[in-house]
Amino acid sequence: MFSQQVFLQGLGLGASLIMAIGAQNAHVIRTGVRGEHVLPVVATCIVIDVILIALGMAGLGALVESSPVLVGVARYGGAAFLVWYGLRCFSSSARGGAALSVDGQHVQTLGKALATVLAISLLNPHVYLDTVVVLGTVGGSFASAQRLSFALGAMTASVLWFSALGFGARRCAPVLSRPAVWRGIEAFTGSLMLLLALLLLRAG
To answer: What pTM was computed for the model?
Structure first.
């Protein structure tokens, strides 16, 4: 049964995790700014996220469901992680961040562009932490009928975010050069993480 509230929680948590500026996002932005193979790169990032989210929800969801203890661990552990992550975002925002550096004007082949995004995505442990562990664990704390709504929300966040990064980067290049933009993103992400931690605790 579809739950709009749970879908929005999945959307919010997925967006908060994926919005952290890391190697994957920076690569997608650079690809968009250069206008090189944007669609294949964006599609690859989305497919990777969808598969990993599905694996996390399927494996950890079944495991958590079998044990009330694990349900509690998932709920309170997930909330603790969200609080920690949110505070880290606030700390990063307060310290100030560097703007994205978009350099290098050489032309990439499609094969090299895809190989790069696959390496950045699949060799980065944070990708697995965010999708399989965090989203899988938090999603597993919901009732069985609500987990699909949560997963769809998280997957939608990936679709929207990577599409916005890849296809909006060229128009936003002047703005992306400002450190204040990244500080604002970090502050927004931190606020959303703390809100989602509260919602997760209230769900218990």
So the answer is: 0.71
